[in-house]
Amino acid sequence: MKILLTLCASLFAFTTLYAKVPFGVKIGVNGANMLNLPEGANNTTKMSFYAGVFTTIDMGDKFSLQPELIYSRQGARIDPNQLFPDESEGLISQGELNRQIRLNYINIPIAFSYNVWGDLSISLVPQLGINLNGTDRTIYNDRSVKTSLNGIKRCDLSLGVGVEYMIWSRLDVTVRYNLGLTNIIKSKSDFNQHNIKNGVLQLGLGFTIFE
C-alpha cells in the first residue's frame, strides 16, 4: 500500500515538474452514505471531509482531463443495534446513542470535463478507491467504543458526475456525486449478499497553485 501511494505521488510530481501542466489542491465536505444496507439499518448521511491534489490537462477548447489524488472520509451513520462485520469477520451489536461507520479512502478520480458555457463545466469521473482502514464507532452516555473493520474490500470502483464553476482563474467550486459500482464488503462476510456500495456527495474548492 505504501508503495502504491508513493508511486501515485511520484506520478503527480513528475507530471507537474516535467510536463509543465497546472497543479493545485482541493478541499471540501463529504455527505457520505452506504447504499443497500440491510433493512432496519436506518442509515443516514455522515458528514466529513476530503482533501488532495490535482493537475489539469487541456484537450482542446472545450475538453480537459483532470487526474486527482484525494484522501476521503466516507461511511454512514446507522442504527446502534444494527449488525456489521468487525475485525474478526464476525458480527457485533452494541450501542446506545449514536453509531458511525468511518471508511478512509485514497481515491484516484480522473475527471473528463466539458466546458458548457463561459466558466461552467460538467464532468464524468471514473474513480478507483483504495480503502486504508475502517472503524465502527459507537457513542454511549459516558464513553465511546471503536472497533476496527476488517470486512471491507481494498478496492472500490465508482463513477461520478459533477459540475464545476471557475470563480476566478485559479479558484473553482465543484459539486460532484460519486456512485459506487462494486460491493465493498468481502465475500466471507454475511453482509456480502446485500451488495453494499458507497454513495458520496461532495462540495469543495480547488485552488491552482501554479499554471
Structure description:
There is one protein chain. The protein is mainly β. It has one domain (23-68, 77-194): Beta Barrel (Porin). The protein is 8% helix and 60% strand. The chain has one helix at residues 2-18; strands at residues 23-35, 46-55, 57-58, 63-77, 84-85, 91-92, 98-117, 120-139, 144-148, 155-168, 171-180, 197-210. The strands form 2 sheets. The chain has an 8-stranded antiparallel barrel. It has a two-stranded antiparallel ribbon with strand order 5-6. The two termini are 31 Å apart.
List the helices and strands and how they pair.
Layout: H1 2-18, E1 23-35, E2 46-55, E3 57-58, E4 63-77, E5 84-85, E6 91-92, E7 98-117, E8 120-139, E9 144-148, E10 155-168, E11 171-180, E12 197-210
Antiparallel strand pairs: 1-2, 1-12, 2-4, 3-4, 4-7, 5-6, 7-8, 8-9, 8-10, 10-11, 11-12
